[in-house]
Amino acid sequence: MSNNNTASITRRAMLSAGTALTVASLTNFASAQTQASTSTRTGLRRLGSLEVSPIGLGCMAMAPGFYNPPPPRQGMIRLIRDAHEMGVTFFDTAEIYGPFISEEIVGEALEPIRDDVVLASKFGFAFNANGGYAGRNSQPDHIKLAVEGMLGRLRTDRIDLLYLHRMDPNVPIEDIAGAVGELIAEGKVREFGVSEISPDLLRAAHAVTPVAAVQSEYSLLERLPEIAMLDTCAELEVGFVPWGPTMRGMLADNMNAYSRFAPQDRRSNVSFFTPEAMETNLAIVALTRNWAQRKEATPVQIALAWLLAQRNFIVPIPGTTKWPHLHENMGATEISFSNAELAEFRTALEALPVAGNRPISMAMESE
Predict the structure, then answer these.
(1) Residues of the chain with pLDDT > 70: what percent?
(2) Does 23 lie in the same domain as 126?
(3) DSSP labels for 313-333?
(4) Fewer CB within 10 A of the end CB, N or C, for the chain?
(5) Residue 27 pLDDT level (bands cut at 50, 70, 90)
C-alpha cells in the first residue's frame, strides 16, 4: 500500500449491487448475515476438512492472456512465497490458465512449502495437440488423465481441492462427482469443489461425493449468489469461494467514465466495463470510497472485508501480480463491521443501480 495518503484514499472502490432481490430473499439474507462472522481476526476458515486463511490468492493472471503482459516467472514465484509469509495458506489455479502455465508457476513456488499450504486447481476442458482450447470435457477418464497432468505441473502427490471448473452438459454431474470420489479414495485429491453450477446440481453432486466448496463470481457488483447459492451452501455446510471479489481491479479507483481497455485486455469484453456501464457503476465507487474513509482503509479492503462479513464460510481469492496489491488485500482481515454498519451498507447498496451484472434467472442455472 502506498505511503502517500492521497494515493491510498484514491484506491477506492467501483462496487455495486448485483441484481435486485425479492423481499423474501432480502429478509432471509439479512437474517443469515446477522449470524455471520463480522471479523476475521479469529483465524482460519474451513472448506470441508481444509482449514485455510480467510483470504486466498488467485493465480490466474500470473499466466499470460488475461489483463497484463506476461509477468516475469521468477517474480510471480517470489510473490506467491511472499504471500505465504504474509499469512496466505490458500492458493488457487487451474489447468486452463495459460493453459498450464499458472499451474507450473504455482507448483514451483509452493514446492518448498507444500505441506504448509492448501492448493486448489480445476479441470473441465479439453486441449488440442498445440495446447489450444478444445471444448469442455468432464468424462471420468478425462478427469483422471487431467489430474495426472496437474500433479506433475504442481509438483505434488495430491491436490487439496479439485474443482469442476465449468459444467460439461454431456456428462451427468453424478458421474463427475463419482470420478472425483475415486480420486479421493486413491489419495490424489483431498476435497471436491464445483464452480459456477446451479444449486440443484450442487445438491446432486454433494449426494455422490461431499462438496467442500463452491467457487463463483461474487462481489459488491455481482451479488447473484445471494439469491439461492449461499443459502444452499449454508444448508449443506459447503464453503463458498468468490472469484472476482474486486471486480477485476475496478476497486483500485484508477478508472473513470472515460476509461477504455486494449483489445487484448479481457475487460474490454466484460459487460461491467462498457462506457455506459462504467458511468452507472461509478455511483458504487463513491459509496465504497466513503466507507473506506470511515474505516481508514482502501476500497479494495472494504470490498474484501464486506464479503468476509457476509458468511463465515466465505473465502475470497483476489488475484494480483503486484506486491503492493497483495499487501493491501491482506489488510482486509483487519477490518470489521458491526451488524448496524452492515445493515447501513446494505441499504445504501440496494438503492444504487448496477450495469453489467447477470440476470436473476442465472441464479438457478449453471454457466
Answers:
(1) 88
(2) no
(3) TB----B-S-HHHHHHHHGGG
(4) C
(5) very low
